[in-house]
């Protein structure tokens, strides 16, 4: 389904226009249907998927912040940092440090 496809293709252009095109709907109708079916907007679903995957990579790998940002569709480390600070009140580096410190204790 589309939600699974989104989560498997986080590094791609996942704009509402692009997603609507993929399912042959107008952007407006797509947004309405997606939100009704999932309870959240397509943009929020994409951002949450990207954030979740970035968190996993920070926890489970030694990849650099820029690499993680590119692989998860944030484009660059600055965009990743902005989302982390807005959603988690931490930078990606702080998140990684706290996660590893908590697991060592």
Describe the structure.
The protein has 105 residues and is an all-alpha fold. It has a single domain, classed as Orthogonal Bundle (Arc Repressor Mutant, subunit A). Helix content is 73%, strand content 0%. The protein has seven helices and no strands. The longest helix is centred in the middle third of the chain and has 19 residues.
Mean pLDDT: 96
| Coarse structural class | mainly alpha
Tell me how many strands there are.
0
State the name of the first-level CATH class.
Answer: Mainly Alpha
Helix content: over 70%
Gross morphology is: elongated
Q: Could you say how many structural domains there are in total?
A: 1
Distance between the termini: 40 Å
Rg estimate, integer Å: 15 Å
Protein name: Helix-turn-helix domain-containing protein
Organism: Serratia marcescens
GO molecular function: DNA-binding transcription factor activity; sequence-specific DNA binding
Pfam family, one: HTH_18
Compile the SSE list and pairings.
Elements: H1 2-8, H2 16-22, H3 27-38, H4 42-60, H5 65-71, H6 77-88, H7 92-104
Helix pairs in contact: 2-3, 5-6
InterPro entries: AraC_XylS_family_regulators, Homeodomain-like_sf, HTH_AraC, HTH_AraC-typ_CS
GO molecular function, one term: sequence-specific DNA binding
Protein name: Helix-turn-helix domain-containing protein
List the defining traits of the structure above.
105 residues; mainly alpha; Arc Repressor Mutant, subunit A; elongated
């Amino acid at each position: 389904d589309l939600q699974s496809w989104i989560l498997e293709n986080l590094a791609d252009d996942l704009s509402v226009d692009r997603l609507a095109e993929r399912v042959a709907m107008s952007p407006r109708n797509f947004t309405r249907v997606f939100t009704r079916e999932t309870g959240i907007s397509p943009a929020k679903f994409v951002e949450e998927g990207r954030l979740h995957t970035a968190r996993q990579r920070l926890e489970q790998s030694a990849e650099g912040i820029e690499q993680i940002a590119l692989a998860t569709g944030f484009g660059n480390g600055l965009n990743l940092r902005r989302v982390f600070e807005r959603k988690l009140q931490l930078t990606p580096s702080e998140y990684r440090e706290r996660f590893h410190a908590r697991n060592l204790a």
